[in-house]
Amino acid sequence: MKKIVLTAFALACAAVALTGCNEKKSAATTATTTAVAEENAGGKVLNIYVWNEEFQGRFNTYYKSKLPADVTVNWVITPNQGGAYQQKLDEALMQQENAPADEKVDLFLVEADYALKYVNTDFTLDVINDIGITKEEIKDQYKYTQDVMTDSKGNLKGLTWQACPGGFIYRRSIAKDVLKTDDPEEVGEALSNWEKFDEVAEQAKKKGYFMLSGYDDAFRAFSDNMTKPWVVDNKIVIDPQIEAWIKQTKKYTAMGYNNKASLWSPESSQGMGAKGKVFGYFGPAWFIDFVMAPGSLDDQNAPKEAGNGSYGDWAFCKGPQGFSWGGTWICGAKGSDNIELIRDILRTLTCDAEVMTEIAEKSGDFTNNIPAMQAVADSDYKNPFLGGQNHIKFFLDSATSIDKSCITMYDLGMSEKIQSSMKDYFDDKITLDQAWNNFYTSVLELYPRLSK
Question: How far apart, in Å, do the first and last CA atoms of the chain sit?
Fold first, then answer.
């Protein structure tokens, strides 16, 4: 799609979402918490808007059995690509007031890259004042996960079951060949800054391996360490970390340190398999569970165990610099007729320490409960995909230091456009100046309000 036009929803909330300034609420959205409660005796259809099946799996495993027998869950799944999910959600939220009760949005999910688009509007319910979760119930969550979902007036608009500190997931057998060790502490020391990382990349190349799968693998390790937001006063800002990613990726492509694969491509996934030659991938715990574990298997129908592809031949270390990537937040939609059910879902899936612990131990996900994660880190937990490693302890320091003060509603679009615009430059098809021109052209088409 050459040009993405802002939806009616985006236009309706643009002034708030773009600037974060305090705006007067419209008369239609000033109902009190008491009025909301009176309106919602409990609907019979729970409509949940998502972009993939990850949350559906968590919901079915840890909450489905608690659903009232007369309630039906309707999953509205629209892929993220090309902004399709946001467009589908925006259209539904714009019709929320007039929609039949069984068609109203009840819950919807957002990512950090565009969370503020929804946080700073009246389409999202206040977790404390509207839904009824108490501050005591969420006191053990990582602070940044609440900061991301707090609007310009201090209202908390969503909760999550996961925190997403990242690191470097490396192939044990390749590490042994290149570094003579697969021990996470020793490999972590060998990769503890970018200079050392480059040295190992050169060693890996000499052994016939790729340090990274492709162009985008290290992007989040750089972009999450930006100290400037993508947009300030409607002007596009390029942080030095983005320039550092471009410089490194150009070098890695030219030197053959990466396999020229794009993230999410079949070629990237193939590097995770038994015949893969990729030293490692940058990612958080959800990337291990949701992407790498399935990608490592030769036989998807056989048990997930050592011997099936490269499963079990991986380990985790912090890498050159700490970072976070992603996260999924659950929002209650204004106008839902299932407030009590929303409250119980949030309470179970984001506040229950036992559930948080079980998710971590069964899937390897790093969950949003500080005492629970400390307990798992101190336990004899072993992740089978990671060769029996307890990787949770490597995430602890990073999780408490995550800072999302630079996020904007533009982050998803900016991240996608910078990666796609630079690809031809990495492949020597265009100059760097041409790549930057392509970036600005595509971004200004996407966000006409902005300027260079």
Answer: 22
For residue 11, the model assigns a pLDDT of 44
Helix (H) or strand (E) holding 42: none
Whether 2 has a pLDDT exceeding 70, the answer reads no
Once rounded to an integer, what is the mean pLDDT over residues 39-54?
A: 84
Rounded alpha-carbon distances, angstroms, from residue 360 to 243, 290, 374: 35, 13, 11
Q: Which of 258, 260, 225 is nearest to 243 (CA)?
A: 225
Alpha-helical regions (H) of 304-382: 339-346, 353-363, 370-377
Reported residue count of the chain is 452
Measured CA to CA, the distance from residue 242 to residue 257 in angstroms comes to: 19
Q: Which helix (H) or strand (E) holds 248?
A: helix 240-255
Residue 215 to residue 376: CA distance in whole angstroms: 34
Token pair in block for residue 241: 């970390």
Calculate the average pLDDT of the chain.
Answer: 91
pTM: 0.85
- Tell me the DSSP string of 415-441: HHHHHHHHHHHHTTSS-HHHHHHHHHH
Decide if 152 contacts 285 (C-beta within 8 A): no
**pLDDT tens, 243-278?**
999 999 999 999 999 999 999 999 999 999 999 999
Residues 47, 86 contacting (CB under 8 angstroms) = no
